[in-house]
């Protein structure tokens, strides 16, 4: 059978016609295709010679070659018939398809791929870290939100919250700078009252001995209405002589105390209300105003600033033998209340520190001679003012005062017993 197929193929090739055949393997198909192409080329060249010159071809995209193509001899292009037939026992496996795998890839390609993957992973880590470091900014508040929450009213605390809301929304300030600005604003509101009190205190300083003698006379006149009236008349005459307005000195504590306490409880109420906006203070070192300062620095700074202000303001206070010991009492309370300060919200601590520093700056500014002359405040000599007392002297003073109170109580009891008899 194979011999007949071979003969038929040989005869077909000689006649220039194509006879389909079956390839038994991949190698035989390749060889047969090559042989057919070469046979077709030679037969086609023979057929072209037989066509008339007026024949029309349908290959419109190319022109006829200028030089004729030389045909190679048929004997050099034809393969022997024995090579056209393949071995039927040959393998029918297909050749492996070339592909780029990790094993075939070069080391440079692998290193570039690994470096690219590492760069992408590091870039993703950098982006995620940067996104996590971006602080959360809550939505802006609108006018009237504090009123809807019941945090504004006509009380000092409610008015302070209303003022903070106006500054926060109108000036687009975070809550940290809002508390700071509102505190400074309240100190500016109280400035005229502070100037009036300082003016009266400076006018009373040259008459300190007369004032102390008159107060001692009032203490001795207890229980004697006539002696008290005489001492009051002397006090009135001395005030007119000094040019002091006692009403201004009496009103000052009633004005300053509500504003100070109103700001304290107003800020504390805001921090305890759970408003989301207060959790973003606007400062990176103190992000949340609703919790205590995590560093613990603010309570210590408040205590130190308070003691410094007490020492600085002692020279501007009215002459009174009890004043240095009262100052020591406030110092002891500030140190003892340090544990309480650690538990306050950071917003309250910011208010206290700002208030004390503003008061200290105001005291230092009002001591300048040029400022005093501009505000009609008498300029005092450097040695004027009250001296501070030690804690030992204050303890001794308290013991003496306590014994005097007991003696006074015994004296009143004896006087009442005599009247009853």
Automatic annotation (TrEMBL):
Pfam family, one: 60KD_IMP
Record region (Disordered): 86-108
Key words of the record: Membrane, Transmembrane, Transmembrane helix
MF-aspect GO terms: membrane insertase activity
Cellular location(s): Membrane
Membrane topology, as annotated: Multi-pass membrane protein
Protein name: Membrane insertase YidC/Oxa/ALB C-terminal domain-containing protein
Membrane insertase YidC/Oxa/ALB C-terminal domain span: 175-366
Biased composition (Polar residues): 89-108
GO BP field: protein insertion into mitochondrial inner membrane from matrix
GO cellular component, as recorded: mitochondrial inner membrane
Transmembrane segments: 175-195, 242-265
Keyword NADP: no
Family: Belongs to the OXA1/ALB3/YidC family.
CDD domains attached to this UniProt entry: 5TM_Oxa1-like (cd20069)
Major localization listed first in the record, in broad terms: membrane
Transmembrane is among the record's keywords: yes
């Amino acid at each position: 059978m194979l011999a007949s197929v071979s003969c038929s193929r040989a005869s077909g090739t000689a006649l220039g016609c194509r006879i389909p055949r079956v390839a038994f393997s991949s190698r035989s198909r390749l060889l047969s295709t090559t042989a057919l192409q070469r046979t077709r080329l030679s037969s086609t060249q023979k057929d072209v010679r037989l066509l008339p010159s007026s024949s029309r071809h349908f290959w419109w995209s190319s022109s006829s070659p200028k030089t004729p193509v030389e045909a190679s001899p048929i004997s050099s292009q034809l393969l022997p018939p024995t090579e056209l037939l393949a071995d039927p026992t040959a393998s029918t496996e297909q050749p492996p398809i070339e592909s780029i795998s990790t094993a075939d890839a070069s080391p440079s390609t692998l290193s570039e791929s690994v470096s690219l993957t590492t760069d992408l992973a590091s870039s993703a880590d950098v982006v995620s870290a940067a996104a996590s470091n971006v602080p959360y900014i809550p939505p802006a508040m609108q006018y009237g939100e504090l009123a809807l929450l019941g945090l504004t009213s006509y009380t000092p605390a409610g008015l302070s919250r209303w003022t903070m809301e106006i500054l926060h929304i109108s000036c687009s300030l975070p809550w940290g700078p809002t508390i700071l600005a509102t505190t400074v604003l309240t100190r500016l509101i109280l400035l005229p009252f502070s100037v009036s009190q300082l003016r009266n205190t400076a006018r009373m300083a040259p008459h300190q001995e007369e004032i102390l003698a008159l107060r001692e006379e009032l203490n001795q006149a207890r229980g004697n209405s006539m002696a008290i009236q005489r001492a009051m008349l002397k006090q009135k005459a001395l005030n007119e002589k000094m040019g002091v307005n006692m009403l201004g000195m009496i009103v000052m504590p009633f004005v300053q105390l509500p504003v100070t306490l109103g700001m304290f409880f107003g800020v504390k109420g805001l921090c305890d209300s759970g408003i989301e906006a207060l959790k973003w203070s606007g400062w990176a070192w103190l992000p949340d105003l609703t919790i205590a300062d995590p560093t613990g620095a603010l309570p210590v700074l408040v205590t130190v600033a308070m003691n410094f202000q007490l020492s600085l303001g002692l020279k501007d206070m009215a002459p009174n033998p009890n004043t240095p010991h009262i100052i020591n009492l406030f110092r002891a309370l500030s140190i003892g209340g340090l544990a309480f300060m650690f538990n306050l919200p950071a917003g309250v601590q910011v208010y206290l520190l700002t208030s004390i520093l503003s008061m200290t700056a105001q005291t230092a500014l009002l001591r300048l001679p040029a400022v005093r002359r501009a505000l009609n405040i008498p300029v005092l000599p450097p040695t004027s003012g009250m001296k501070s007392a030690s804690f030992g002297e204050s303890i001794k003073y308290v013991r003496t005062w306590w014994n005097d109170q007991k003696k006074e109580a015994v004296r009143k009891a004896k006087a009442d017993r005599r009247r009853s008899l």
